[in-house]
Amino acid sequence: MNAFNFFLPTQMVYGQGVVKKAGEALALGSKALIVTGKSSARLSGALDDVLAVLPGEYVIFDQVENNPSLETVEAGGKLAKDEGCDYVIAIGGGSPLDAAKVMAVLAVNDLPALDLYTAGWENRALPIAAIPTTAGTGSEVTQYAVLTLEQEETKKGLRGADLFPQVAYLDPNYTASLPLHVTVDTAVDALSHLVESYLSNRATRASDFVALQGIALWGTAIPALRQGRFDLDDRDALLLASSLGGIAIAQTGTALVHALGYSLTYYEGFPHGRANGICMAAYLEYTKQAAPERVETVLELLDLASVEAFGELMDELFADHAGKLDLAPETIAHYVNKALLTNNIKNSLGNPAAEDLTKILTNSIR
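RE: above sequence
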């Protein structure tokens, strides 16, 4: 018997026009802190839809950058506190959603953001409504928030049950304004969540069910990803697959792909999804030693004949924005050592050691 605990407190409201249909129910309090990036919330139409129906007062924080910093979340938390906000609406991709979660904590706890990693927090975060405008992180249904820590030269996650949004509104129309490279990068991020969850030491029958459904759904969008043209059905498949990936990793966490990918983002400037995609074929090849049937299942659901075909798909998707990596051995060793400090490695099948990670990263940059 495979005993497990499956926890997902977020209400998901999925479909076209769900924000407008929510109307006054969108409000989780009397005054909202609306957290966005600099442009995506407006370009997608999501912010306009929110403002058209939102009752009560609000204040907008629209300065969230990619890979948000401690300074940014502290500024947002202070704004929420100074303005007397009692709930948060997060609109955007993974960066605004993750930043909003930490702002919701800092609004009601008097401590520096960095201290959250060591001391935790006493007061429960403000309630959050999440509205994703990318199909990638699944942050709208997870208890995780990832920030950039300049002190440690990496990205690092926080987790807490109160970081689960209270409600997530998912409308595939909000992803239609994304540039092609962002659609691809975020889609591969979603796939990495699904695959790493399924190939995790913490996988259960319940998380497997979610991950496998998500992988199969993601696979239906491969032709659109290859052609760079998406209709609403494709956007729908990718958004739902992304949320399923979030549900899956909320139970299992991520694995070594993320551990290695963080350095490729921090030091080499690769978007998070692309950093993961660079490592995924070599990761699958390594994991075949420990779980050949599971790797084969992933490939079958994606209708790919081999790990080599998977790698060719990644190369094809990133061909226009590849940016070749040329890492010196000492640089690879540094990235591997940083990966070994993460909890992600413990989740990885095969108990990878430094030499394994070195081989995976070396083979990934080929």
